[in-house]
Amino acid sequence: MYDVIVIGAGVTGCAIARELSRYQLKLAVLEREEDVCCGTSKANSAIIHAGYDAVPGTLKARMNVAGNRMMDALSKELDFPFKRNGSLVLCFDEKDLPGLEVLRERAEANGVPDVRIVSGEEIHELEPNLSPEVTAVLDAPTGGIVCPFKMTIAFAENAFENGVEFHFNTEAENIEKTADCYRITTSAGIYETRCIVNAAGVYADRFNNMVSGRKLHITPRKGEYILLDKKAGNFVSHTIFQQPTKLGKGILITPTVHGNLLTGPTAEDITDKEAVNTTAEGLAQVMEKARLSAEKIPLNMAITSFAGLRATEDDGDFVLGEAEDAEGFFNAAGIDSPGLSSAPAIGCFLAEQIAEKLEAKKKVNFHSSRKDIPCVAESTPEEIARLVAKDPAYGNVICRCEMVTEGEIINAIKRPLGARSLDGVKRRTRAGMGRCQSGFCSPRVMEILTRELQVSSLELTKSGKDSYLLTGSTKENL
What we know:
Elements: E1 2-7, H1 11-20, E2 27-30, E3 47-48, H2 59-78, E4 82-83, E5 87-91, H3 97-110, E6 116-119, H4 122-126, E7 136-140, E8 144-146, H5 148-161, E9 165-167, E10 172-177, E11 182-186, E12 189-198, H6 204-211, E13 218-228, E14 239-242, E15 252-255, E16 261-264, E17 268-269, H7 280-293, E18 302-313, E19 319-322, E20 329-333, H8 339-358, H9 381-390, E21 397-399, E22 404-405, H10 406-414, H11 422-429, H12 442-453
Parallel strand pairs: 1-2, 1-12, 2-9, 5-14, 12-20
Antiparallel strand pairs: 3-8, 4-8, 5-7, 6-7, 10-11, 11-12, 13-16, 13-17, 13-18, 15-16, 19-20, 21-22
Helix pairs in contact: 1-5, 1-8, 2-8, 10-11, 10-12
């Protein structure tokens, strides 16, 4: 019997698990995929929003601003990349200036500092490559960028180190309330728990509706993106938004914390909760609208494209807290944008509610910090020399595009909740995320996985389940 089970190991579920691990509770996270960060958390804009867009008084506004304020300290404590690069919202026509003023007023009401409207020559002093059609911008300096993979993994590893169990390849299939607990039937067996946290992304409505009379309905909103090479990474320094509509914040252009340039997403409401494919139409739309913001954006430097799904609830706000008619069942549902920005605050918000519900006491031995894998590409020559002296594998470069070494890949496999697939290594080290998109390094990463996991190469997958990388061998005894 567990005290709390979290369904879903995305950034929200892992943030909640990490905050719950501060308390003397028996905790577990159930995840249907083979790793953390396999859904929306791995396919988004990687933006920490300032908080000027959400309607004042909503949970989105409250969690966004609180999460944004937590980010500097968290990134240092948990050792993941974060940068406050600031964000700009573009206005292309003077008749739309009232829209910027609405955002500025929302920023003030939400407690977002230093937001202002800029016009004239200062626009291109801030960003020289913006379109000449831009007549005014909303400048929000507290906006930022983050690595969503590293952030999610950091929450999960720290939660694990503080006693949280993670059960992967464990898909929740049914939830029923018994006299004294919840019984969760999964693809890997039955789990019983006093409380449930529903952080299941686009499937959160399904689990809520199994136990609550207040039905939720989540629509997957598909967003397609284009990622550009690091040679384009300095094209803009801020995160560039277009004025938002009811479907979202429009096509953005932003640098990433790793030095690339990202543009997207589209916003298409769909019915298929697994449709993460890109389309020719969607990518064409991204390119067309990106050029409105910056007509000289070097889209010829694109190295890959991807799509993600945002879990949009019909009422338009986050659904957080205990269901009124299902005691012990706590929702973290409808977490669309600004979900990544809000995750740390959602973690605190729900953990406090659950701890109070269970009368849980805080641990005296909670470990709040963790260290990431040493990154050779970002290290000084002296730091690299020390790494190689300690472990020569840090001197063997495997991924040339991103300068990822064998030592980093071994670390990714052996650390808590270590990588078990090609994508698992990629998210932890960036091996395969460069210009050649793993064309050179994937066979070598596979060799390391085979050796360190002591499995046959035929068992290796790209991302778990049946995504096998090899169909057979051409020679015996391989």
